[in-house]
Design brief:
The chain has nine helices and seven strands, in the order H-H-H-E-E-H-H-E-H-E-H-E-H-E-H-E. The chain has about 280 residues and is of the alpha/beta class. It has a single domain (about 1-15, about 45-275), classed as Rossmann fold (3-Layer(aba) Sandwich). The strands form two sheets. It has a five-stranded parallel β-sheet with strand order 5-4-1-6-7, with helices on both faces. It has a two-stranded antiparallel sheet with strand order 2-3. Strand 4 (about 150-155), helix 7 (about 170-180) and strand 5 (about 190-195) form a beta-alpha-beta unit. It is globular. The structure holds magnesium ion.
């Protein structure tokens, strides 16, 4: 029923070209929910929702990234992509993830009936006002003021919706979510998983595509896979082995020079590739 309602809303938006004003997030679901999930016992979720510490860390991350912008713009030998070299003549760009990096989904996490499904997040995003991660708007404004192009690379997937004649209806939802947090963006700078052939959940493929035309001076995200290739349990080309806790710890050391210096990671105790590796 709910997904049908979302489809109708999306179809109406596509048909008339207009965008309705989304509602504020509803209060958290009753706890425990029908499927037994009790958000009042989830410390990670409560921390993101309520802790000043969470907001302070997010502002600290974006403050550090903003302060570092001029240096990385000026140093044309610098790239935040280990795979990139000889990019000194290319214009600078930064790559941001979307969920829990630009847009906070904490209110969705407080409300949705487990288990997670992509259509549940898409429905939520279509119907409710997005919440900004603290600090991101000022960072994007500073980057653009320095003539740095801003890309948004997300693993929100393109999935067909019944009754909607669009191979990737989630694209419009994602662009609109970014607009809702106060950041203007043209759709070509938002890249979803599955939007083009080869754009799978291994973000390295999309990062390399951007690096063909831009010197990538920063990566910003909340998931190891926003930075490190082959960080997931599920094996996706070009990766050949599942990530493990041990392999991810090794990668921490391998890429040691980038953390806080070109790579800026935000905290996310609610979800992510870290939850499935063993
Ligand atoms: Mg994310």
């Amino acid at each position: 029923m709910a997904s049908i309602r979302a489809s109708i809303v999306l179809a109406a938006v596509i048909a008339c070209g207009c965008v309705s004003t989304p509602a504020p997030a509803p209060p958290p679901a009753a706890s425990p929910t029908a499927t037994g999930y009790d958000h009042t016992q989830d410390l990670g979720l409560l921390w993101v929702k309520h802790a000043a510490e969470y907001r302070a860390i997010a502002e600290q991350v974006y403050g550090a990234a903003t302060a570092a912008l001029p240096g990385y713009v000026a140093d044309t030998s610098w790239s935040a992509m280990p795979e990139q070299s000889g990019a000194g003549k290319l214009p600078p760009a930064v790559i941001l993830d979307v969920d829990e990096t630009v847009v906070s989904n904490v209110d969705f996490q407080l409300t949705f009936e487990r288990p997670f499904a992509n259509h549940k997040l898409d429905e939520w995003s279509s119907n409710y006002q997005s919440l900004a991660i603290p600090g991101v708007k000022d960072f994007v404004e500073a980057a653009r003021a320095a003539d740095v192009t801003v890309f948004f690379v997300t693993n929100r997937p393109c999935e067909l919706i019944d009754g909607v004649d669009d191979p990737c209806p989630q694209k419009g939802t994602t662009v609109e979510d970014i607009h809702e947090v106060g950041i203007d963006v043209e759709p070509e700078f938002v890249m979803l998983s599955g939007e083009q052939p080869g754009w799978d959940r291994e973000k390295l493929v999309r990062r390399k595509l951007i690096a063909e035309n831009y010197r990538v001076i920063m990566l910003i995200g909340d998931d190891f896979g926003d930075f490190v290739p082959c960080a997931r349990k599920k094996v996706v080309a070009p990766c050949t082995a599942a990530a493990t806790r041990a392999s991810r710890t090794d990668a921490l050391g391998k890429y040691d020079k980038y953390w806080g210096a070109g790579w800026y990671i935000l905290p996310n105790p609610m979800h992510g590739s870290w939850t499935s590796v063993r």
